[in-house]
Write a structure and sequence with these properties.
Length: 313
């Protein structure tokens, strides 16, 4: 199948700090590809290289067959970009924002007006055409951002932490629009995120940590690397019971608030032992399949919620 973006042995440093260290991957046309890692993993630097916002230092990177170092203008014509920070003019209306962006890519006259109408319809914001962007909710602003990024019908849409600051409902709506665009228009999507539920929506995921590739594959392939299931136990005064539970079960356990999570290689027996040992101290028990968070923890010894060291961005 056709590769829409290809990276080989990319290295990038900020002075003496290493942001990317020998990163290699390939993105197949038409898929939703995730760059997953904690803050400081290097995914933002990789995103900036893909968007031609910073120059390459070492390695090779191409988008739609164009080299990001020698053919930047050609690369940019293939891209739509939605940044983590809003990139809309809050003083203009929704339609005016779309027109301004479309005109930058050579659209004009009837073609530009038609494309604006198509985007307003596609992203469910027809009734907001004349609304000043600064008055919109965060979720609606993100829809406008997405519509703006798709105005010139790019082959590749880059999304950098696109749901940052959105409430759960707005986040869900945003991803519904993204996946619909990918499935109906065949647009290749590359999303940088530290949120595991978003990464699990991807067709393929690149796990990054401290500038290095940890693993790559479909979410199911990555999850299948781990044997057993994940057992989450909520306990009264969980901190005081952590060592006892670790001794009882053996292996790695993780504490988050009143919840202790562990790998369940023999769920029935382990649940029985926990209930016998802790009795009425148990608030709840939950057994789930391994997540990408579990895969990352297994491979790095750290959770996705932990910030990487200062050597990466």
């Amino acid at each position: 199948m056709t590769s829409i973006a290809v990276a080989r042995n990319i290295r990038y440093n900020y002075g003496t700090r290493t942001a990317l260290d020998d990163v290699t991957f390939s993105v197949t046309a038409g898929i939703l590809f995730g760059l997953l890692g904690p803050n400081g993993s290097g995914k933002t630097t990789l995103f900036r290289l893909l968007a031609t916002l910073i120059p390459m230092q070492s390695g090779e990177l191409s988008v739609c067959g164009f080299d990001v170092t020698t053919q930047q203008s050609s690369v940019r014509r293939q891209l739509g970009v939605t940044f983590q920070s809003p990139a809309l003019d809050v003083r203009l209306t929704v339609a005016e924002n779309l027109k301004c962006h479309g005109s930058l890519y050579g659209l004009s006259g009837a073609t530009l007006n038609r494309r604006v109408s198509e985007m307003l319809e596609q992203f469910g914001i027809v009734d907001r055409r004349q609304t000043i962007v600064g008055t919109l909710s965060g979720g609606l602003k993100r829809r406008v951002e997405l519509a703006k990024g798709m105005m010139h019908n790019p082959k590749v849409l880059l999304l950098d932490e696109p749901t940052s600051g959105l409430d759960p409902r707005a986040r869900q709506e945003f991803w519904e629009f993204v996946t619909a665009q990918q499935q109906t228009q065949g647009t290749t999507m590359i999303v940088a995120t530290h949120l595991m539920p978003e990464a699990e929506l991807c067709d393929r995921v690149l796990l990054l940590d401290r500038g290095r590739t940890v693993a790559e594959g479909t979410p199911m392939e990555l999850q299948s690397r781990l044997d057993g299931e994940r057992l989450s136990v909520r306990l009264r005064d969980a901190t005081s019971h952590l060592d006892s539970l670790r001794t009882l079960i053996g292996g790695h356990v993780e504490l988050q608030g009143d919840r202790i999570t562990l790998r369940a290689s023999n769920p029935a027996e382990q649940i029985r032992e926990i209930m016998h040992a802790f009795g009425d101290q148990i608030l709840s028990l939950e057994l789930t399949r391994p997540s990408l968070e579990d895969v990352f923890l297994e491979l790095t010894g750290r959770s996705l919620s932990q910030t990487g060291d200062s050597n990466a961005r």
